[in-house]
Amino acid sequence: MKKKDAYFMVENLKKTWENADSAFTLDIDFSVDKGEMLCIAGQSGSGKSTILRIISGILPFEKGARLVLDGKDISTLPPGKRDIGMVFQNPTLFPHMRVEDNIAFGLISRKVAKKDARFRSAALLERFGLSGFAKRYPDSLSGGEAQRVALARTLIVEPKLVLFDEPFSSLDAPLRKSLALDIRQSQRELGFTGILVTHDIEEAKTMSDRVIVLKKGSLFWQGVAKDFKESHISSF
Amino acid sequence: MVFTKIIAFSIFQALLSTLVAVILGFASAYYVAKKKSLFADILVSFSAVPLCVPPLLVALGYVLFFGNNGSFNRFLMAVFNLQEAPFSILYSFSGIIIAHGFYNFPIIMKAVADVWQRLPEEEEWAASLLGASRFRLFKTISFAHLRSPLASAASIVFLYCFFSFIIVLLFGPIGLTTLEVEVYRASRLSLDFSKAAFFALVETLIALTIVYFYSSFEKSGLRSQGTSAVLREKTKMGLSSRFFSIVLFGLISIFFLFPLFSIPVKAVFTKAAFKTVFFHKSFLPALGASLQSASISALLATSFAFVYALCIRIKDPLKKNRFFRFFPFIPMAISSVVLGFIITNLLFALRLQANLFILSLCQAFLFWPFAFRQIQFSLDAIPQAIDEAALMLSPSLLYRVYKIYLPLLKTGIISALSFSFAMSLGDASLPLLLAIPNIQTLSLFTYRLAGSYRFAEACASGSIILVLSVFIFYIGERQKKNLKREKKVRMR
Questions:
Q1: Class of residue B336 by CB neighbours under 10 A (exposed 0-12, middle 13-18, buried 19+)
Q2: Cα–Cα nearest to A69, from A83, A80, A54
Q3: CB B172 within 8 A of CB B96
Q4: Hey, are the CB atoms on A96 and B144 less than 8 Å from each other?
Q5: A115, pLDDT greater than 60
Q6: What is the 3 state secondary structure string of A123-172?
Q7: Which of these, B400, B410, B402, lies nearest to B379 by C-alpha position?
Q8: Average of pLDDT values for B229-234?
Q9: Which chain A residue is nearest to residue B131, measuring alpha carbons?
Q10: Mean per-residue pLDDT for A112-127?
């Protein structure tokens, strides 16, 4: 499961948490190769999103765990210093900023000149077929457009690892499929490494190279994406 | 004082007072929204004070607490063994600013904290993952959401301070005066009506500009509104925030809590103060007149607000017409003194005399924007689909209003009634301006007691207003809490 020379490694990740009707412990080790897209699947409450929140630094974890990205221990770094991007369930665009400012946000945070940031933002907008949207506000975008902008905002800073937390859950079926294909194509073109969390079999197969299935916080199944079946999730 | 100086001073004192209220309100909102502590809980309980405690009582509290013979000075004289009162803010410019700032800061606190504690967490996560520093996170994400509620609350505070009458009249320094006080002096004391009309016009035009900005801030707030219906989890206080909370609490206690507490304390601990008031020949008629005028004005303001809110909901469901949204706030640009001046002249021209109904009508006009906001808040909680279903299933508009809107808006209506009732009850300016023959309200009765230096009796009478206002206001607030709960259930 865990390779010593992997691009991203999660070692001894432990966290105990409670939900409405049960309490259980997340206890997992895994790794992701450079340029690979790993899918973490499992039923609701299995700990999938919690893993992403821990990796991104939003949630703390118990002592003893180690997160290594590109040979560097990022376990104690704050979220902004980990070189990790994240696409959330909802697009979480900043509602008071225009599309171009949303996309350029990460670059400006990294002290890139506004002009350069806008230029790169325009290039990414074109890449995602949103050229005419630069001056618009998020409330005028459809769900799919907003999620594309969120993806562009994440990718513009060229993070070493991109986390996708059920990014299509708020979209309808045809849009989910087209966006999933779009992300997969971008991932191949741009070569970023990613972790996708989903409970949708088709999505997992379309978007990832490898799948791990969680059951109450522990590893239940792992394999290549094409072997992933409904029974791996529903047999809980 | 030259008229340009009066205008400049009116604006300057209102601006400075608003600045004090903004600083205090923003700092308090931070504790209310983000920190788990008793201090934050205490701050929350102040939210309603500016709306349900009349300015007359604030002025009275300040005189009792900060006067030369007040509790604060006596305390300092005893501790430091001084012969003369060391602390003097009454009858000074700083006194007006401090009284205004501390009296109004809960308006800012409530408006900002309500949004702050509901800011969507994911936006902040996204920003910090994109490398935003804590300062940039606050500036570009949190503050961007807080800017509109802060600006609209600050506009309201500015208007309150700009229109402040009793506080400036009672302890404004010699030589410094505001437009509001000058309208009163010119119309009631020097009887220079053209001067009064000029000042009234200038004051109203300035206020109208502020009201326009206020309605724009309200509109722009829609775009940056926090989307989360769930309250953010609060954190424990660290050492530095504990230190600042102590400083803040100290200031709030000295300039806000203790002066207000002085009123009931003085009334209770002065022998026979309540007895003298109760047996005063004017007390019962004044109480009756107050209850009567407050009830009528609350009913009128709420009915008009209900009808107007429903009309614009039906005519403009998508909230596109700017004037429809601006119109309800126009009365906020007219002060009670200016309205009193206009009505007095109108009555004089018509050879009529002011009466209790006219007083109620004027108060309803002044307070209906507040009633409208309560009903609008309640109306916004009703999904558009309910309107459509009601339209298809009801035989007539009247049936729809009676069977659908009235029951659904019940909480908003009760809240609007209590708001306008409490505000009318505490209003001393209009009764003073209209000077209804043989009739005085409880606020006017209290004002006259204070004006004749019968402070203990004024405190007893003021305490009765305080208890009545707080009680009525409490009923309205409970209704609002019920509404928030209903809103959450409807969202699920």
A1: buried
A2: A83
A3: yes
A4: yes
A5: yes
A6: HHHHHCCCHHHCCCCHHHCCHHHHHHHHHHHHHCCCCCEEEEECCCCCCC
A7: B410
A8: 67
A9: A80
A10: 90
Nearest to A202 by CA among A178, A221, A177: A177
Closest among B11, B338, B1, B362 to B201, alpha carbons compared: B338
Q: What are phi and psi of B171, to 5 degrees?
A: -135, 35
Residue B141 Cα, gap to closest chain A Cα (Å): 7
Q: How far is the alpha carbon of A54 from chain B, nearest alpha carbon, in Å?
A: 12
For B227, the token pair is 């989307």
Q: What is the pLDDT of residues B347-361, one digit of tens each?
A: 999 988 899 999 999
A5/A156 Cα distance (integer angstroms): 27
Rounded Cα–Cα distance for residues B235 and B316 (Å): 42
Q: Are B163 and B335 in contact (CB under 8 A)?
A: yes
Which of the pair, B117 or B47, is modelled with greater confidence? B117
For residue B343, the cross-strand partners are none
From CA A206, how far away is CA A185, in angstroms rounded? 10
Amino acid, single-letter form, for residue B195: K
In chain A, which residues have their Cβ closer than 8 Å to the Cβ of B123? Answer: 92, 94
Please give the distance of CA A119 from its chain centroid, rounded to a whole number: 25
A76: number of Cβ within 10 Å? 10
Query: Do B453 and B436 touch, CB atoms closer than 8 A?
Result: no
Does residue B127 belong to the interface with chain A, where contact is any CB pair within 8 Å? Answer: yes
Rounded average pLDDT over A155-172? 87
Work out the pLDDT band at B205, boundaries 50, 70, 90. very high
Rounded distance between C-alpha atoms, residue B115 and residue B123, angstroms:
14
In chain B, the residue whose alpha carbon lies closest to the alpha carbon of A58 is B125
SS3 B338: helix
d(CA B324, CA B320): 9
Measured between beta carbons, the chain A residues lying within 8 angstroms of B224 are 95-96
Q: Which residues contact A87 (CB under 8 A, 6 or more apart)?
A: A147, A150, A151, A154, A162, A163, A164, A165, A167
Size of interface A-B (CB pairs under 8 A): 71
Q: Are A166 and A147 in contact (CB under 8 A)?
A: no
Q: What is the ipTM of this complex?
A: 0.74
Whole-prediction pTM = 0.79
What residue has token string 């501390």? Answer: B102
Q: Looking at chain A, which residue has its C-alpha nearest residue B128?
A: A80
CA distance B137 to A108: 12
Q: Do β-strands A37-41 and A210-215 pair in parallel, antiparallel, or remain unpaired?
A: parallel
Which residue's entry shows tokens 């000295």?
B254
* CB pair distance less than 8 Å for A58 and B125: yes
Question: Higher-confidence residue: B2 or B360?
Answer: B360
In the DSSP assignment, the letter for residue B141 is I
- Four-residue CA torsion sign, A49, A55, A59, A60: positive
The runs of H, that is alpha helices, within B53-120 are 55-66, 71-80, 93-116
Average pLDDT over residues B218-226: 56
